[in-house]
TrEMBL record, chain B:
Belongs to the binding-protein-dependent transport system permease family. GO terms for cellular component: plasma membrane. It comes from the Bacteria. Keywords: Cell membrane, Membrane, Transmembrane, Transmembrane helix, Transport. The chain crosses the membrane at residues 12-34, 69-90, 102-122, 157-180, 215-237, 263-287. This is Sugar ABC transporter permease. It is found in: Cell membrane. Residues 65-286 form the ABC transmembrane type-1 domain. It is a multi-pass membrane protein.
């Protein structure tokens, strides 16, 4: 108590001594520090973050930005550090988190965050961002984080030359997929390139199969408890995935997803299902013969994941954080961030001209498609449930045991407290 | 009197530290495993043994236990076999023994992380574009291409590939143990046996091996508890592997606790591991304490 008193006395004494003249200016603009916590340390993403920092700095030059990044493990290390800091009562001013249940189940449900519904309304974001995205961000009627970007998980990437040589079109339905796959296999080409070394890639591809088998509403219901995991449509999805795996490369267990991309690039593999970070990867390899389409049966459905930032309770300077969130959600901020990150704006009013061909396609889909949350990337379910889902599908790739896998998936839903 | 007080004062800090940081946390982990803490924030509602029942019903944990068994058997048999053979060869007084001894013992100085990375490269199955690499490339060059396998990417091999790396690292250590044992056997015993008409094989079979039994026992204990707790080697080399074929309980524990926020489940796995290690070491500790008391 006395220490606090002494500190504030010193602070006010300093303020009086130093800033009597400029007191008006001090009140107008936020000052102090802003600590932003993320795992954006690699190539394009670090530059994207810096671009937003640039805008923030131009608007609020008095605020010193502290860039607290923790590298490695697709955010695994960062999340562990974040947990320690949050539970220890030392939250960063704002932190990167996958929008949706990764944020809601980990931090919102236990009351560590402040709702941002007021900010969204004041800034007009409730109309600037699509309804389906706001649903993902919401919990108990409030919105909890500001999405800075959108990645699409369900994209079918294919080698254009292979399809042209075989006089085939990329498959729009599952029937076409298997017909094409047979034709390609007969030519000695791997129809379905897969690399599932890290454990999550198979679960990622299976999301698209679930969407194909259940439709957008049925798929959404899996994560809210309205679609039963024990139902015949989930069985059908597993059977379809089993058939697809029979067309995969035999060394899939040794490869990460970019290893599967090598198959497409080398003309030895025809198709793969991967998120749209594959676009940046193909570009960085100066490979141009690739095309994209929704995976078979995924027409009109956008399987989305988003990086977002929220407002933890007990932050040091709330005003600085609100200013940060306003920059993140603004058209200017999103247009600066996304071309560098290789994603698209969460807002629907970004100018297509600053984006590449793939992003322009994705932006059109973003405004028209039904938006569903990705589970592997944190939007659809709690971290615990997503881990159980990932494990069940990773085992399925080897075991191909439909009944046992369906049972494990159903049990994961029960363990998460969503299914009875 | 003062001696005793001084000795107690010297020992006290480490006794307290061990009581808190080892036994205290063992107890705390045990308590957590009996609660419903499966979220970020603690939830100490009593769950009894339900977490354990669920755990043994979890497919990943069942696979992990089998993997641990396969790994332990392969690793123990390999280390004892290779270590004993090397010790016997070195014991025959060949020239440059010290150099060989150092070479065989050197891997022990390397961390499991380094071993894991190196063996991940060596046992890389290669790919369709790049062709074979590592050991598969050696096999191909030696016209033994038929022997190429997927190594740790083949679910039938899985954890055994990791056991191979662990074997490489620790067989030198086992050799050192056996060599010390062999050197401690008095020459008179061997000579007496030879005078009695025993062949070389019989000297080893009837004289040396029985005398080396305590060495074998300690080697089994030391290597056994390493293999039950193996974690870093798996992380660096393979991860969970296809269909969890190279997954181990310690890795599952890390995954479920810090990625899945299942703290009670992670604590339960830790306790199961503790019991397994205790089953291995406690009888030995009791036996050796009694042996010391008997002296």
């Amino acid at each position: 108590m006395t220490r606090v008193l002494r500190r504030s006395l010193i602070a006010s004494a300093v303020a009086v001594a130093v800033g009597l003249g400029s007191l008006g200016a001090l009140q107008a603009a936020p000052a102090g520090k802003l600590e932003i916590f993320s795992w954006w340390t690699a190539g394009g993403e670090a530059e994207a973050l810096n671009a937003v920092f640039g805008i923030y700095h131009a608007r609020y030059p008095a605020v010193q930005i502290v860039n607290a990044t923790v590298a490695g493990g697709a955010g695994t290390n960062a999340k562990a550090v974040l947990k320690t800091r949050m539970l220890g009562g030392d939250p960063p001013d704002s932190f990167q988190v996958h929008a949706g249940h990764e944020l809601i189940d980990t931090w919102v449900r236990n009351g560590s965050m402040e709702p941002l519904t007021g900010l969204f309304k004041a800034e007009g974001w409730t109309t600037a961002m699509p309804r389906g995205l706001l649903d993902i961000l919401s919990y108990k009627g409030d919105i909890w984080s500001v999405p800075v970007n959108i990645h699409r998980a369900n994209v079918l990437w294919y080698n254009k030359k292979i399809f042209a040589d075989a006089h085939l079109a990329p498959p729009a339905t599952l029937d076409e997929f298997f017909k094409d796959a047979d034709a390609l296999k007969a030519k000695g080409i791997v129809p379905f390139a897969l690399g599932d070394k890290e454990g999550w890639e198979a679960g990622h591809a299976f999301e698209a199969v679930l969407i194909a088998a259940l439709g957008a509403d049925g798929y959404r219901g899996l994560w809210t408890g309205t679609t039963p995991w024990t139902g015949p449509k989930v069985t059908a999805a597993l059977e379809i995935f089993k058939r697809m795996l029979a067309y995969a490369n035999t060394d899939h267990a040794a490869l990460t997803w970019d290893g599967a991309g090598e198959y497409i690039m080398g003309g030895k593999g025809a198709m793969m299902i991967m998120g749209d970070w594959a676009n940046g990867w193909f570009t960085s390899k100066t490979f141009n013969e690739y095309g994209w389409a929704p995976p078979p049966g995924n027409m009109g459905v956008y399987d989305a994941l988003s990086d977002s930032f929220g407002l933890p309770k007990k932050v040091r300077d709330r005003e600085n954080v609100m200013a940060w969130l306003r920059v993140l959600g603004s058209r200017e901020g999103q247009q600066a961030f996304n071309p560098l990150k290789g994603s698209i704006c969460a807002r629907t009013d970004c100018s297509p001209s600053v984006f590449g061909a793939y992003q322009r396609w994705a932006m059109t889909q973003w405004t028209t498609d039904a938006i569903v949350p990705s589970v592997i990337h944190g939007a659809a379910a709690s971290e615990g449930w997503a881990t159980d889902y990932k494990d069940a599908i990773a085992l399925f790739v080897t075991s191909r045991d439909t009944a046992a896998t369906q049972q494990a998936l159903a049990k994961a839903c029960v363990n998460a407290g969503v299914c009875k | 009197m003062w001696d005793r007080a001084a000795a107690t004062a010297m020992l006290l800090p480490s006794v307290v530290a061990i009581a808190v940081f080892v036994y205290g946390f063992v107890g705390w982990t045990g308590y957590v495993s009996l609660t419903r803490w499966n979220d970020v924030l603690p939830n100490y509602a009593w769950a009894g043994l339900r977490t354990y029942a669920d755990l043994f019903d979890t497919f990943r944990f069942r696979i992990d236990l089998l993997n641990t068994l396969r790994f332990t058997l392969a690793f123990l048999a390999g280390c004892l076999g290779v270590g004993f053979t090397l010790a016997v060869l070195l014991d025959r007084g060949l020239r440059g023994e010290a150099i060989f001894r150092t070479i065989f013992l050197a891997p022990l100085a390397i961390s499991f992380i380094v071993t894991g990375v190196v063996w991940r490269w060596l046992l890389n199955p290669g790919s369709a574009q790049l062709g074979s690499v590592g050991i598969n490339l050696l096999l191909e060059r030696a016209h033994l291409g038929a022997l190429r396998t997927g190594w740790y990417t083949d679910p039938r091999i899985g954890i055994l590939a990791v056991a191979l790396a662990a074997l490489w690292q620790l067989s030198g250590y086992t050799m050192a143990l056996y060599l010390a044992g062999l050197r401690s056997v008095p020459d008179e015993l061997r000579e007496a046996a030879r005078v009695d008409g025993a062949g070389e094989w019989q000297v080893y079979r009837r004289i040396l091996m029985p005398l080396l039994q305590p060495i074998t026992l300690s080697a089994v204990i030391i290597l056994g508890h390493i293999s039950l707790k193996i974690f870093d080697l798996v992380v660096a080399m393979t991860g969970s592997g296809p269909g969890f074929s190279s997954d181990v309980p310690a890795y599952f524990m890390f995954d479920t606790t810090f990625r899945g926020n299942h703290f009670a489940q992670g604590a339960a796995i830790a306790e199961v591991l503790l019991v397994l290690v205790a089953l291995l070491t406690v009888p030995y500790l009791i036996y050796s304490t009694r042996a010391e008391a008997g002296r």
